[in-house]
Amino acid sequence: MSDNGSFATSAGMELLSLAQGTGARTIFVVGIGRNAGKTTTLRAIYNAAGARGLRAALASIGRDSEDALGADFPKPRLWLQPQTTFATARGALPRSPACRILKLSQLRTPAGELLYARTELSGFYDLVGPPTAAGLREVIAELGGCSDLVVVDGAVDRTAAVAGSDGAIVVACGAAGAQTQDEAVDEVAGLAVRLAIPRFDDGAPALEIEGALTAAQAARFLAAGESRQIVVRDPTQIALSGRAASEALARLRIRCRRPLHVIAATVASIGPERNFEPQSFRSAVAAATGLPVYDVYRESAAA
Amino acid sequence: MKPLELLDGSAAHVLEFEWLRAAVAPVSSYGERIFEGLRPFAGGEERAAQARAQRVAAMTQRVGAERIDAVRGVLRDIPDATPAIARAAIGGVLSDPSLLELRRFGAAIARIDALLADGPPLENAAVLKLREMLDAGQERENEFYLSDAFDESLAAARRELMEAQAELDAARGRESERAARELRRAELGEEFIVMRAEHSGHLPQGVRVLREAPTYFLCTLEYGDAALAALRRRDGAAAELAAAEEGVRERISDLVRNEARGLEAAAAALGELDVLFAAAHFTHRFGCLPATIVDRPALKFEGARFLPLEAALATAGRPFVPLDVELHDPAVLTGPNMGGKSVALRTCGFVAVCAAFGLPVPAERARLGLFDRIAWLGIGREEPMGGLLSSFAREVLALKELLTSDAVRLLVLADEFARTTNPREGKALVVALLERLRARGACALAATHLEGVAESAGARHFAVRGLREIPAGPAPDVDAALAALAGSMDYRLSEVTGDAAARADAIALAALLGVEPAYVEAARAAFLK
Q1: d(Cα B410, Cα B397) in Å, to the nearest integer?
Q2: What is the chain A residue with the closest CA to B146?
Q3: Which end of chain B has fewer beta carbons closer than 10 Å to its terminal beta carbon, N or C?
Q4: Complex ipTM
């Protein structure tokens, strides 16, 4: 039942080093759709942290809100080593091996109230997270208090929880999320650029946006030739995706008050319905995002 | 805590019942269950109401603010263990989170008993047994682990599982290392890609192709004989441990089932204590005292305060002027605008509501009866704008409902009732109301600007003492006007004989609030004419 190795620990080591280089104590792994390799990436970082003697705590936001497949596809269980702290729900806690229950939270999930537990023996465990950004902040704070590093199986719209803080983001994309390789590359490039928008310049003219920047608003700004900084709270408030996002971000000066730190991308070239050529896919994502890119089925990076 | 028939929605709103409810709310789910069922004491329950208020006051005095806060801090953090007790009582096997809830329940009771060592203990034999069982091998108070100390079999089963897992990991590691070496890779994942261009010939033994693509194979590593044998041993050990852990849970759940009645009694006592301490917290915070409860509709207090307004004034740095009132029949209250007539009515109602719920009241001294109904007429009963009824029609319908109610002990508070019709008919309506209420033996206070009501109704007459001196207007702004007014106004009530001559305080207020002097002078001249 143990999953020796999984996604190569060496790639996890490199991802961990990148995150630590930014001073991050929380790493969010966000993905484009299912089978993007998020869980594999999370496992790699977790295994790497263990190999370095770091206490890594684990959390999940539950199901991706951007995931159209929803509840029909359960999240994979994770093989955790002893003394790992994690957040889960009462209904998802295995009866055996018994865990040490550290704290019962008031946060509710579809699988019951959230709780914090620590493994005493290695085994398979489920991560379950809170349904709200405020809940996720509580989970990160709670787990951060008893670990060196918190790794979150996240969702793009929940990354606001680490905006402006010491969090780093790894973007995962896979063949399952798009019809063609070009489409997948566009999607991940748009997401990476969107999440990486810089902090606004205090000294330059700015137009503050309350709430999300929508495609319709962006189109109006483009048509009007808006040259001021367009400032949103954080990158998750940019409700644009794919090529539209790339276009708007290239032509408008979109900025944020609380920036995020995207440190790398991972690719999973094999999906249930289609495969992309691994080296070509990884190279294309690296070229489009400018990020270090790791193949979840291989260990080396392309940059 | 529900007002039931004591207050209708409008009276509850005007008397700030929700404020009071929040101020005396318990902090635990145990207390909330009891609090939800609290109802006002009714006529005939005077001794019980008074006893409760005295118990709260005595507890407040004996325990002191610091310990009240400490106990409430413990109560606030206790998880609700009653679902777990109920589940065990019907034969369920409890989960570890439920066992943590029970452990914290027992620990909280012990902590509260330690804080209240001079009082009767909450802990009973059932709680003691539960604590002794659940504390086995625990390292920290707020955690729970099905530790080896619960049963010797756990330690043996865990040791066996760890050894079997280590054997499996070693066997898998050897297989993985061999395959990785043959593929010239540093390591292999659960699933991995082998590029056709990088590898010619056969794949290593045990490497199974999951999917073939033109340029690569997606592979996994099968279990070899040694790993399979280790896997079987490990799975067997895992099953043994699961059975041992479940056995311990069953044993603990049996104890909870056998002691369910005692545990439920302790949970109920905890709830009672929470409700009592919430009232004690209120009593201390607002300096309340138990009233003397009498068996007739009467209300007499000295130094009483309408707490919601007092709290609001405190944030603005202004004091509330405590009031003295004695009512045993319908009476009239007059006074200048902004002189506190409405507040006096609300103070009467608020004190009566506190007493009805067995709470100490915000007064230096109070003696009052338990009312079946506290009714409010006039200003404050307004419905939202719109609808077919005029404000007068709505007042009349409220009056009709009041006069046909079968409440025996009635406290009616009327704030400028019938003010929206012509003064002559308005006065007649108020006078008739007071006469009718007197005939029913009700207690009432009717604030009005209409002249001669008290005399016509043969009712006692209270008046706000009013402005000691009229502040010279106009004030620079509204806040300054209010400050000048508060400094000059004597909000206390005095009983007066007959109908005292009206003073032109309304015109002085208009001047103070900055209305143009020519207009003020014209009004004053018209008044004196």
Answers
A1: 18
A2: A98
A3: C
A4: 0.84
